[in-house]
Amino acid sequence: MAAAILRAALRRSRPAAAALLHHRPLPSSRSLPPLPSLGRSSLLSRFPGSAGFGYSTVADESTAPVKPKGKARKNPMKQSRFDFTKVDAALLPTVILVGRPNVGKSALFNRFIRRREALVYNTPGDHVTRDIREGVAKLGDLRFRVLDSAGLETAATSGSILARTADMTGNVLARSQFAIFLIDVRDGLQPLDLEVGQWLRRHASGIHTIVAMNKSESLDEHGVLTAAAGEAHRLGFGDPVAISAETGLGMAELYETLRPLFEDYMFQLTNNGLNQDDPTSEAETEAHEGDESKLPLQLAIVGRPNVGKSTLLNTLLQEQRVLVGPEAGLTRDSIRTQFQFDNRTVYLVDTAGWMERSGKEKGPASLSVVQSRKNLMRAHIVALVLDGEKIAKSKSSMNHPEVLIARQAIEEGRGLVVIVNKMDLLRENQPLFDKVIDAVPKEIQTVIPQVTGIPVVFMSALEGRGRIAVMRQVIDTYEKWCLRLSTSRLNRWLRKVMSRHSWKDSATQPKVKYFTQVKARPPTFVAFMSGKVQLSDTDIRFLTKSLKEDFDIGGIPIRVVQRSIPRKETVKSNSRNTGPRINTRMRTDKRTTVCEPTTS
What family is this protein classified in (predicted)? Predict the structure, then answer.
């Protein structure tokens, strides 16, 4: 109460209250005796509710040392006693971000991982995030795994999208050690926040929960944060931390809160006999440096909406990792996850449904289209998923958007695998089943003639049939995509190929000096020409086809370019003399002859 009266007096510029805080006597004949010191420590001991939010008294400002003018320097964070940069990612502490919808969980996730990966859009009446997104966070010298979850609504109807996202969030709580409970400080503590807090105590009783008051960048004055902190204590998770995921405010305070918790967790791991370093993974990385085909594989699952992409990802992972359902356009974020197959690391990316860009997309739908195209560029192998049931009902196997996906993947030099899903729906009609299996490879070869032998896999993601066939075909395509051939082997092959090719005239036959591979991923070859005659488009197609047949690298894009070797200019014999040349000029008369040397 006394602190509130003093602040009110200062705002009204009353000299009496200011004199009390500055310990100066009043300008009157009867001066008051000096009061005891009311520094920051004594005020905080009397009024602990005002601590931790950047408030200071006039006495603190008067006794504080004067800072030099100029650009303010940031207060450096304390260094952790544990080196988190040397810890394997699987052993790092896991933090899950929870809260009601539209409180800034995805924005804080992007700040933690230091890139804009999760979709962020202001939709109070809708939910942008629907799946669990995972990444490695960096906060100062701390490293930890962070999970971005969907907004929780405890009153969601059973079987609805919100109820399914809440169930998925509850499932991933089992592999989390810490939770950051976000609330919107501008809206105050809502009834839904209290319900989410009760839900956390019910489902995550063994998880250490930290309350973060987000969106506090403009509310650090007039005691608003102090009042909000008092409300946040009603959640029962201790003192809250005021942050701003958008501007980075409060990250130092959040670091100081998380650092001792993470250090205790890592010391417990080391005491239990787990090493912080992972020598096995380092040895594997060093062993695979020379062989590019053993490096981690980036696989993007693309296709039109509601063809079974998310179901395929869950089938490959053998767990319910992403949200699935009969609703079209259910996936919005491109979800990236990691798993092991045959001692190989595979990064799977489930993209949103690929739609034709009409310019009418608004909100999260427009962001999903852009994000899907970006993930297509980053992938090594692209798995194009088709709907077998729609193929059986229509006259063509691929419509316009799917043809665009396939052609763009080939033009970007990516490996392509076509997966025909939902074949379990055609099992009862055997003639139609056989017709689809026969028609799809032929039509793919027709619409994409520049690449022959594109692999096609028929499967049922819902039943799990064809899962191993899909992964084996993906790895086989990836190994071809990473193939490297020696120059000596290529030149021996070139002599045989040039001899069996029918040339119209030997005089017009191009002369290939040598043939070499300059890069892999995709395989790129260069033919060095020594004559004036260049390889025609027909000749390049012949060499490309021969490479695919003789070295069994069909189904991937191959690039063949040609370069001319410039002729060496004849070097004059006297061009080597770099010194001055001496000429002798003769001058004669009738009696004598005189030689005068001249320098030119």
Answer: Belongs to the TRAFAC class TrmE-Era-EngA-EngB-Septin-like GTPase superfamily. EngA (Der) GTPase family.
The CATH architecture annotation of domain 487-500+510-565 reads 2-Layer Sandwich (3.30)
Amino acid 63: pLDDT: 38
**Is 553 in contact with 516 (CB distance < 8 Å)?**
no
Q: Which whole-number Å values give the CA distances from 526 to 302, 377, 490, 517, in the listed order?
A: 32, 24, 11, 6
Q: What is the spatial distance between Cα 284 and Cα 291, in angstroms, rounded to a whole number?
A: 11
Cis peptide before 455 (omega within 30 of 0): no
**Which top CATH class is 94-270?**
alpha beta
Burial class (CB in 10 A: 0-12, 13-18, 19+), 30: exposed
Instruction: Inform me whether the pLDDT recorded for 283 exceeds 80.
Output: no
Amino acid identity at 302: V
Helices 364-378, 400-411: inter-axial angle, 10-degree rounding: 40
Instruction: Give the model confidence (pLDDT) of 394-408 as tens digits.
Output: 878 888 889 999 999
Q: Retrieve residue 99's tokens.
A: 């809260």
Of 251, 240, 262, 211, nearest in space to 82 by CA = 262
Q: What is the DSSP letter of 29?
A: S
pLDDT in tens, 591-600: 444 445 444 4
**Distance (Å, whole) CA 18 – CA 9:** 8
* Fold: same for 94-270 and 487-500+510-565: no
DSSP 8-class letter at 51: T
User: 61 falls in which pLDDT band (50, 70, 90)?
Assistant: very low
Distance CA 261, CA 240 (A): 15
CB-based contacts of 501, cutoff 8 Å, min separation 6: 539, 542
Where residue 249 falls among pLDDT bands split at 50, 70, 90? very high
Neighbour-count burial for 114-133, b at 16+ CB within 10 Å, e otherwise: eeebbbbbeeeeebbbbbbb
What is the distance between the alpha carbons of residues 266 and 84, in angstroms, rounded to a whole number? 9
CA pair distance 85, 88, nearest whole angstrom: 8
Q: Where are the beta strands (DSSP E) in 520-592?
A: 524-529, 559-564, 582-588
Sign of CA dihedral 548, 552, 554, 559: negative
Residue 460, Cβ neighbours under 10 Å: how many?
A: 22
Question: Of 257, 260, 240, nearest to 81 (Cα)?
Answer: 260
Q: Where are the alpha helices (DSSP H) in 64-212?
A: 105-113, 161-172, 191-203
- How far apart are alpha carbons 103 and 101 in whole angstroms? 6
Q: What is residue 101's predicted lDDT score, i.e. its pLDDT?
A: 86
Q: How far apart, in whole angstroms, are the C-alpha atoms of residue 289 and residue 303?
A: 33
Give the E-state strand segments of 388-483 in sequence order.
415-421, 456-458
Would you call 418 helix, strand, or coil by DSSP? strand
**For position 533, what pLDDT does the model report?**
81
Cα 563 to Cα 216, 531, 546: the distances in Å are: 61, 11, 20
Would you kindly state where each structural domain of the chain is located, as residue ranges? 94-270, 297-355+366-482, 487-500+510-565
The topology under which CATH files domain 297-355+366-482 is Rossmann fold (3.40.50)
Question: Coil, strand or helix: which one is 20?
Answer: helix
Q: What's the rounded Cα separation, in Å, for the pair 103 and 186?
A: 10
Question: 496-541 pLDDT, tens per residue?
Answer: 998 877 766 666 778 899 999 999 999 999 999 987 788 889 889 9
